[in-house]
Amino acid sequence: MLIEIRWHGRGGQGVVSVSRLLADAALIDGKYAQAFPEFGPERLGAPILGFTRISDAPIDIHSQIYTPHYVVVLDPTLLKTINVFEGLVENGSAVINTDKSPEEIKQEFNIEKFKVYTINATKIALEILGRPIYNTAMLGALVKASNLVSLESVREATLKRFKGEVGEKNVAVINKAYEELEVS
Amino acid sequence: MAKVIGLTGDEAVAYAIKQCNVDVVAAYPITPQTVIVEAFSEYVFNGEVDTEFVCVESEHSAMSACVGASLTGARVFTATASQGLALMHEILYIASSLRCPIVMGVVNRALSAPINIHGDHSDMMGSRDCGWIQIYAENVQEAYDWTIQAFKIAEDKEVLLPVTVNLDGFILSHSIEGIKVLEDEDVASFLPPREPVYTIDPNNPITVGALALPNYYFEFKVQQDHALRNSFKAMGKVFSEYEELSGRKYDVLHTYGMEDAEIALICLGSTAGTARYVAKRLREKGVKVGVLKPWVYRPFPEKEIVEAVKEVKALAVMDRACSFGAPYAPLGSDIASILYKSGLDIPVVNYVYGLGGRDVSPLDLEAVVNEILEVAKTGEIKEHLKFLGVR
Amino acid sequence: MSEKKPLWQTLPIAGILLEPKSSLKYKTGDWRGPFTPKINQEKCTKCLLCWIYCPDGAIERVGDGVRINLDYCKGCGICVSECPVKAITMERL
């Protein structure tokens, strides 16, 4: 089955990198994958999108993603400015960086038809990386929520893309987010 | 087992070039081609290749340097996009006329104005008559595979023509896909060092680029046209050899579902994949849709296309470029011409789509299929040339 | 003018001329009109300006001096204008 993931963040938060990390991990798992940026201007701080496709069969399609199975929101402030849930399929999932609970988000946005997972990725990133870069924390959370790829492959892909201490710290972030995300 | 690695289209082209034992790269960066040049210059810097990397001040100079280098017998690569290709325009003709087997990655991007960095085929279509072999890749794997095969086709002694490998800007150039790469030594055995026919060499002087007036010029143009049309022969050999090496079979035309297709879509590049995705889903509902993807656009695979479409009741020809004021867009014109030549009376609707990188979604293509089904049913064409998804 | 020219199939590709110096066979001296340059060797200072300026390379160096190769001289007279000591003149033959 072809699974489509849409990443929401702001320019400079590593949206494109994390969309690629997930694809890298899927490839390590022996699946087919595709990751691409939003085909728009790259502007630091502006809301931007990243996309990942994962499938057991070769992926023919090369359009943007309109009806994702997962949306991942890296930056909590985006919830107020754009509709991050647009096109999300029924029974799909939203994984959101926020200090609120899934119930609070569901209530706030009148969500009934899909699942919501929340995690305080900002806190994890600041604790471990000392910088407000939440992309890898959200990757850890998505992996826990979705089981799309194995955690081991995500670690391997991360260490390949980020060398040395940066890699190690990001793996710690991923592990922590994976542990902390509550799946009911 | 072949290695699978995740690479963007641009990275995959650079990786292929690293394996092709290229003697000279002369290039100037331009979005969305930049990553090819960046990634390759890193290989040069790290000493992973012994290629002479010439940093030039413009694309006009890049192609000029490539022509000079190629004439000495070197294997030469460059890459560009959009305005860069337009700036090369006059030298493109010189490269093909002087029979320089240069390979160029063209990361297709719209032409100004207004300025736009995104994918469409206006750049290559603007130079489609430049005498180069023109190949369009659908995905990252194809961009890699075609780049390697391109050298072997270009350098064949019966061909000796430059080749462009086209990949859609951003849609492929900046998308990561898992691709199977070959081992360095396999590429080396597939692609031994170039054996030039003529070289400029101070010890054995020849004259290249002399004047040819009306009493000679015409003959050289006919030679060139003949070489381009005749390059299919060399391609056949290259495709079989590459299949043996990689397990991946290429051809001049790729078809899907044409055995029993009632209608078909013809498209170049990445859109062909999306069209196939749509066709597969519609076929599950019993709609007999076929998809044709000319891998090779010049020389134009006339025979193969005619053979594939002769039973269909209507055709949609998808063009990611405009031919302003013309009866049809570029691919539309070609298809209309070959249908006329072969006496096939198949209704054609030519769709111009995706200019400046406007996305073409599965829903857009489904709408095209529905329109063409209607044309097939009624035999009636309301508009011959349509602009898909324009406001 | 009934010289038989080769067909496209038999010409070398790309307009390449395989034989070096083949232009020597093309004797453009018969383009020359009735006036022909003549060097007064006594006046000539061997400065070589005519040798540099001749657009057809028809002035050849002989020893430390020059001579006009009439096989290639088209009679343009540039050497006459360039000679600083007026050692070259156009003469009607």
Question: What layout of secondary structure does this protein have?
Answer:
The complex is a heterotrimer of chains A (184), B (391) and C (93).
Chain A: E1 3-10, H1 15-28, E2 32-37, E3 47-55, E4 70-73, H2 78-81, E5 93-97, H3 102-108, E6 115-119, H4 121-128, H5 135-146, H6 151-161, H7 164-180
Parallel strand pairs in A: 1-4, 4-5, 5-6
Antiparallel strand pairs in A: 1-3, 2-3
Chain B: E1 3-8, H1 9-19, E2 24-27, H2 34-45, E3 52-55, H3 59-71, E4 76-80, H4 82-97, E5 103-108, H5 122-126, E6 133-136, H6 140-155, E7 163-168, E8 176-181, H7 184-190, H8 217-246, E9 253-256, E10 263-266, H9 271-284, E11 289-294, E12 296-298, H10 302-309, E13 314-319, H11 330-341, E14 348-352, H12 362-378, E15 385-387
Parallel strand pairs in B: 2-3, 2-4, 4-5, 5-7, 6-7, 10-11, 10-13, 13-14, 14-15
Antiparallel strand pairs in B: 1-8, 6-12, 9-11
Helix pairs in contact in B: 1-2, 1-6, 3-4, 9-12
Chain C: E1 35-39, H1 49-53, E2 59-62, E3 65-68, H2 78-82, E4 88-92
Antiparallel strand pairs in C: 1-4, 2-3
Q: What is the count of β-strands of chain A?
A: 6
Mean pLDDT value of chain B: 97
Distance between the termini of chain B: 49 Å
Give the SSE order of chain B as H and E letters.
EHEHEHEHEHEHEEHHEEHEEHEHEHE
Biggest sheet features of chain B: 7 strands, mixed
Tell me the structural class of chain B.
alpha/beta
From the 3D structure, determine the CATH topology of chain A: Pyruvate-ferredoxin Oxidoreductase, domain 3
**Could you describe the largest sheet of chain A, including whether it forms a barrel?**
6 strands, mixed
Radius of gyration of chain A: 15 Å
Relative helix content of chain B: 40-55%
> Which two chains form the greatest contact, residue counts included?
A-B, 20 and 30 residues
Structural notes for this entry:
Chain A has 184 residues and is of the alpha/beta class. Chain A has a single domain, classed as Pyruvate-ferredoxin Oxidoreductase, domain 3 (3-Layer(aba) Sandwich). Chain A has helices spanning 15-28, 78-81, 102-108, 121-128, 135-146, 151-161, 164-180, and strands at 3-10, 32-37, 47-55, 70-73, 93-97, 115-119. Chain A has a six-stranded mixed sheet, with helices on both faces. In chain A, helix 3 (102-108) links the parallel strand 5 and strand 6 (115-119). In chain A, helix 1 crosses helix 6, helix 4 (121-128) packs across helix 5 and helix 6 packs antiparallel against helix 7 (164-180). The longest helix of chain A is centred in the C-terminal third of the chain and has 17 residues, at 164-180. Chain A starts with a strand and ends with a helix. Chain B has helices at residues 9-19, 34-45, 59-71, 82-97, 122-126, 140-155, 184-190, 217-246, 271-284, 302-309, 330-341, 362-378; strands at 3-8, 24-27, 52-55, 76-80, 103-108, 133-136, 163-168, 176-181, 253-256, 263-266, 289-294, 296-298, 314-319, 348-352, 385-387. Chain B is built from twelve helices and 15 strands. In chain B, the strands form three sheets. A seven-stranded mixed sheet of chain B has the order 3-2-4-5-7-6-12, sandwiched between helices. Chain B has a six-stranded mixed sheet with strand order 9-11-10-13-14-15, sandwiched between helices. A two-stranded antiparallel sheet of chain B has the order 1-8. Chain B has two domains: 3-246, Thiamin diphosphate (ThDP)-binding fold, Pyr/PP domains (Rossmann fold); 253-387, 3-Layer(aba) Sandwich (Rossmann fold). Chain C has 93 residues and is α+β, with helices and mostly antiparallel strands. Chain C has a single domain (27-92), classed as 2-Layer Sandwich (Alpha-Beta Plaits), CATH 3.30.70. A two-stranded antiparallel ribbon of chain C has the order 1-4. In chain C, strands 2-3 form a two-stranded antiparallel ribbon. In chain C, a hairpin with a 2-residue loop joins strand 2 (59-62) and strand 3. The interface between A and B is medium-sized, with 20 and 30 residues. Strand 2 (32-37) of chain A pairs antiparallel with strand 8 (176-181) of chain B, so a sheet runs across the interface.
